[in-house]
Design brief:
This protein has no helices and 11 strands. By secondary structure, it is mainly β.
Length: about 130
């Protein structure tokens, strides 16, 4: 069992930055890939970014590549934190962002098509002037 809690969303102007956090806990969390999906009103869910259990693999969608950076702290086998640093934000980045975990031993291949084994509750990101 893995529990995920997101934080860090909010309102930001175009060109600004936000950092999302996903606090992941559970006895096997260190073996799970963790990443982010987002969903805007009336649009399909989009896989944004993913990081593998040992950091060796990452995924970014084309729409965020070069602007978003995912990172992970594996300091504990039972508590991991994953961050999504979002820079140069655009209005089209507005969505609810969900943290998701999949595994064990999954390495982010095909992230947008994955169903996610565990999900957080979501955090709203709004980019508007």
């Amino acid at each position: 069992q893995v529990q995920l809690v997101e934080s860090g969303g909010g309102l930001v102007q175009p060109g600004g930055s936000l950092r999302l956090s996903c606090a992941a806990s559970g006895s096997t969390v260190a073996n799970y890939a963790i990443g982010w999906f987002r969903q805007a009103p009336g649009k399909a869910r989009q896989g944004v970014s993913c990081i593998s259990p040992s950091h060796e693999s990452t995924y970014y969608s084309d729409s965020v590549k070069g602007r978003f950076t995912i990172s992970r702290d594996n300091a504990s086998n039972t508590v991991n934190t994953v961050w999504l640093q979002m820079n140069s934000l655009k209005p089209e980045d507005t969505a609810v962002y969900y943290c998701a975990a999949e595994g064990p031993y999954y390495h982010c291949s095909g992230w947008p098509l994955r169903r996610g084994d565990y999900w957080g509750q979501g955090t709203q990101v709004t980019v508007s002037s």
